[in-house]
Every structure is written in C-alpha cells, then in structure tokens.
Amino acid sequence: MSKPEQRMHIRLSSPFMLEMWVIIFLVEFVKGSLLVALLPVYMEHTLNLSVTVVGFAFALQYLGDNLFRGPSGWLLERVGYRWTMAGALILIVAAVAIIIYADNAPMLSLACLILGIGTSPLWPCVMTGITELAGSTTSGSSGAAMGSVEMASLAGTGIGPITVNFLMDHGHQGYRGAFYLLLAVAAAVVLVSMLLPARIGRGVHAVTRGGEPKREAAPAAEPGVRRSFLAGLGHTLRQVRVSRLLYPALFLQAFAIGLMTPVVTLFARSELHLSPTMFNVLLIAGGGVTVIALIPAGRLVDRIGTSAFLNIGFLLAAFSLTFFSQVRFLPLVFVAVALVGVSYAFILPAWNAFIAKQVPESERGTVWGLFLTLQGSGMVFGPIVSGRLWDRVGHWVPFFASALVMLCLFALHLVIVRRTAQKRLAAEAG
Questions:
Q1: pTM of the model
Q2: Helix 364-392 crosses helix 246-260 at what angle (to 10 degrees)?
Q3: What's the pLDDT tens digit per position in 123-155?
Q4: For residue 62, which phi and psi values (nearest 5 degrees)?
Q5: What secondary structure letter does DSSP report for 4?
Q6: Using an 8 Å Cβ cutoff, are 285 and 338 in contact?
Q7: In this predicted model, what pLDDT tens digit does every residue of 292-323 receive, in sequence order?
Q8: Distance CA 95, CA 116 (A)
Q9: Do 106 and 346 contact (CB within 8 A), yes or no?
Q10: Inter-residue contact 219 to 81 (CB < 8 Å)
C-alpha cells in the first residue's frame, strides 16, 4: 500500500508569516483607531464638521482602499513584497501626519483617501504570499495561515480603539497624544515592512513538508513586465479559468457583512435597549468567540478541506442572523451573537483558502487584487441597501437579508465545487 500523500503546511513561525502578522496587526490598529474611535468624534465635536462630511471622508478611505487593490497586486508582481508594502505604508504615515494638522473638511477627506490607498496592498500581499507559500493552488494547505492573519486583523481592529479611547479621556491633549501614538505606530510598520522578502521562495520563507523547508526557485522576470497595467490586466483575465459563479459569490460574501455593519449599533440601542457598556460586552463576546475559534478552525480546514466548513458556516450564519433579528431576551441575544461568531470563524479561513485554490499560479498578485476588489465592492452597496431596508421595511430586515445572502452563498458554493469536480474528472479522462 502506498504511503498517503504528504500535505504541505505553511510554517506559521516562518519570517514572512511573522512579519505579515505584525504588519496586519499594526495597520489595523491604526486604521481601527482612526475610523472607529478617533475621527468620528474628533471631526464632529472638535472641528464641528457635519456627520455628512464624516461619512464622505470615510467613503473616500474605502474607495481608495478598494480601487487600488488591483493595481497594487499588479505592482506586487513587478517590484516584490518589500517595496510594494513599504511604499504604501509610507502613505499611511503621511495620512496620519495630515490628520494631525488638518482643520478643515477637504484636508481630512484627502487624508482619508491617502489612508485608503496606503492600506490597499495589504490583503493582496497577504493572500498572494500565503498562496505562494502553500506551493500550489490545488494542493497547498493554507487554512491555518488564513486563520492567523484574520486573527491579527481582528486583534488590531479591537485593541486599537480601546487604546486610543483611553488617551482621548484626557481631553484635547488626549487627541493629540492619540494621533502621535498612531504616527509612531505607522512609522514602525514601515520599518517592519523593510524586513519582507522581495520574493518568496528562499529557504526560510518557504513551505514545510514533513518539517523540512521546501526551497522554491525565485520567479523569473516575465516578458510582460513592460506591459501597461491595462494590457497586463487583460492578459491576466484571459488566464483565469474559474467558474463564473465565483464572481457573484465574491461580491455577496462582503455584501452580507455590509448589510449588517451600519445598523448593528442602532439595532442594539433601539430594539435590544442595550446600554453602551452592555453593547461593548456583546461585541467583545462575539469578537472573542471568533478570534478564539479562528486558529483551530483554520487547522481543521487544512486537514479536512474547505467544503465542510463553508457549508456549515453559511448555514449556521443564516440561522444565527435570523435568530439574532428575532430574539429580545438578553441571554438568547448572547447565544445568537456567539453562534454568529462561530459561523464566521468557520467561514473566514475556509473562504480565503477556497479562493486561493482558484487563483492561477501566474499573476497571483494581480488576480488576488482583482478578487479582493470585487469582494470589497460588496461593502459599498451593502450599507446603502441596509439603510433603505431599515427605514422602509423594518429594523430586523437587514439581518434577515444578510441571512438570505448566506443561503445564496451556500448554494453558489455547492454548484462551484460540483462544476470544478466535473471539470477535473473530464480533464483526467481526456
């Protein structure tokens, strides 16, 4: 009997993974601090700007992040990880510096746009790096790695606002102290990015098979280096051989989150009648369950594959979101939030690992940028639809709509997996 095929596992302690973990944590620390804790209060209370202006500035931040993910992925293929990330992270330093001295809406809006552009290469670089470390788009084992970076992101987003809220309690000087702290953190991220490899595949940045590092040859320069971005984009799209259903699935995955994002706080106050303190406890409970479950879920994804976790995750999310929209008894609310947290811990690493298997070996950075841009566009339309549903239909409807989207994702995933398996069998038979 032949020995079972060894699966390749990414070393979570490899330099590249540790460097990206620190970068993700610190970038999300800065971004979460600004968008969640500092800028809304600072712009409205200190600078006396309207909430409309605050919303426009935040929209520019997301626009810059989303629109430049594709170009940053393309740039990654040409100049490598180190200089792509370092150049972008310098823009974050510039954005924080502008915010410190800005006292009007145009300058703050410009700073938010620059902040979005500065964060745009983060996830294309992470996803491309993990895909390359996995060694193959069809057999690599990347669930635990995906879970670890998601955990770093959630940790930064949560710890950042808590830290700056403490500093803001000291009045106007607290704002300045918080901004200068974020400026120092942003500068530190630039220094960490200089430790990244130009390319992956030199010993310490490689995959392990049976505990030993797998060395990969550095990628050779491609003839398309001199192509314009649009020409290179067209060339890349012609190479992508994935189910067309993957594209709406990418959109819907973020759309489901976007439906909930703007109304969670309103729902907690108007329907559940929670105090700010109790709402914070609820958020910590849900986020804590997600973070705790991410790593074991990611490791299990590596062992048994993505399909079971995605199927269970989508169905559990649909049930728990519907349950959350209907319950008013506080203990049951916590149960519903915990179930939502578990469902997302199942979905996040499995979904990213599933998408990684669809990315072609060539032009990984560009394709990841395109996929993430399409996925992120769901966050643009989700809040718009959510607000209309909240105002015109009912306060519970956005959560029910998100649950329906999860059911659609469950169905799309089943069809994609089935068609992929059929194509593989046909190719083997031919």
A1: 0.64
A2: 40
A3: 888 878 877 776 543 444 556 676 778 788 888
A4: -65, -40
A5: P
A6: yes
A7: 887 788 788 878 888 889 999 999 999 999 99
A8: 9
A9: no
A10: no
Determine the Cα angle at 54 with ends 181 and 394, to 5°: 120
Whose structure tokens read 């792509």? 84
171, burial (CB in 10 Å: exposed 0-12, middle 13-18, buried 19+): exposed
**What's the token pair of residue 176?**
């300045």
Reading the block at residue 273, the tokens are: 């009648």
Within 13 Å and on the Cβ side, how many CA atoms surround 325? 21
> HEC states along 294-334?
HHHHHHHHHHHCCHHHHHHHHHHHHHHHHHHHHCCCHHHHH
Tokens read off for 263: 């109304």
Question: Cβ atoms within 10 A of the Cβ of 103, count?
Answer: 9
Q: Which of 62-71, 190-199, 372-381 has the highest mean pLDDT?
A: 190-199
Rounded Cα–Cα distance for residues 344 and 349 (Å): 9
Type of residue numbered 338: A
Contact 100, 70 (CB under 8 A): no
φ and ψ at 140, to 5 degrees? -70, 160
- Residue 139's pLDDT is 42
Would the CA dihedral through 227, 68, 152, 29 be positive or negative? positive
Q: Enumerate residues 6+ apart whose C-beta is below 8 A from 105.
A: 49, 53, 56, 57
142 residue type, one letter = S
Q: Which two tokens stand for residue 267?
A: 């729902």
